[in-house]
Each structure stands twice: as structure tokens, then as C-alpha cells.
Amino acid sequence: MSAGVPRAIALDLVPRRRPPGLLGWLVLAAGLGLAAAAVMQHDRLRERVDLAEGANARIERQLAAARSAAKAADPRPVPEQEAARALRIAGELGVDWAAVLTDLERAAGPEIGITSLQIRGDKASLAIGGEAHGLSELFDYVERLEAGGSLGTVRLSGFEIKRSGAAEVVVFNLTTGWERAK
Fold first, then answer.
1. 10 located within any domain
2. Residuewise pLDDT in 10s, the chain (182 residues)
């Protein structure tokens, strides 16, 4: 080197890039994996939301159709005869008939024969026609019916004693009622 010549100045202002290290690559891979998992989770949740919105829309359409059908129904007045019949049937249906018939059969025994039942649902009453071997059997039957629990007070509305040779038969009519279902 010569004595009077200054040395060259290194004016490289851009530093050299250092190559990425192993830690950098691992952080990048982890970030990409988490981003992919978040995208997949978003897609699954979006599908569930779409299904729920579809079901909600279907239910809203059904409700709207039901409301319009209810509004379109023509509320005609029910004829008086049809209303009376419907009330009578409703009164008959409001009774536990299994219990009533079981009590009738259980109370009858071998000495009582039921020949007719007439139901009046509008008045919550039952007319019972039958035959008994004697008056004491008839009165015992009335007591057993009242004790059965499914019927109210049992009233003897009429009886007639008929003789058939040596046998005596009491033909009777009873009336009773039941409590209307609330």
C-alpha cells in the first residue's frame, strides 16, 4: 500500500440477511397448522349454522301456513240440535265407564240380572233395568252399587213382583248418576 492513499471506505448500508433458523421454521409451521385448524373449525360451525337456519326457516313457514289456515277457517255457528248432541256425547265421554260397568257387574252377583241400561249424558244419569230373585236381593244390590264408588245415590224408581210357577221374580228399575268430569 502506498502511503498517501487512503483505505477504501466500506459503505454497505444494507446488512446481509441472515438465513432463517430452525426455530423460525417451527414457528411458521405451527402458525400455519393453527390457521388451518381455525379454518376447518369455522367451516364446521358454518355448516351447523346453515342447518339450524334452514330448520328455523322451515318451522316459520309451517307456522305461517298454520296461522293462515286458522284464519281461513270459516267459523260457522253450530246448529242447536247438533250442539245438544255434542254436549250429550261429551257428558257420556266424561265418565270412567270401565269403573261403572265393573261396579254394576260386581254388585249384581248371581241373584241379579241386568236387562237394560239407558244413559242420559246431558243429565249425567243412568237408568238400570233388571230382575232379582227377591226384594232383599234387590235392596242388597242397591247398597252394593252405592258402595262401589263410581256411581252416586241409587234410587229405586219402580218394581213389580212376577210369579212364574213357584219362583218369584222382582222386575225393577233403578236410577243413578255420576259426577261430571271437570
1. no
2. 567 788 877 777 777 778 889 999 999 999 999 999 999 999 999 999 999 999 999 999 988 888 887 666 555 565 777 767 766 666 666 667 777 777 888 888 788 888 888 877 666 788 889 888 888 888 888 888 888 777 878 888 888 888 877 788 889 998 887 665 54
Strands 125-132 and 155-164: unpaired
Supply the range of the domain harboring residue 42. 23-72
Q: Any idea what DSSP says for residue 133?
A: S
Sheet strand arrangement including 112-120: 112-120, 125-132, 167-177, 155-164
Q: Domain check: are 112 and 144 in the same one?
A: yes
User: How far, CA to CA in Å, does 81 sit from each of 78, 85, 139, 178?
Assistant: 8, 6, 39, 24
Question: Would residue 142 count as lying in a domain?
Answer: yes
The answer to whether 58 and 66 are in contact (CB under 8 A) is no
The pTM of this model reads 0.48
Coil, strand or helix at 53: helix
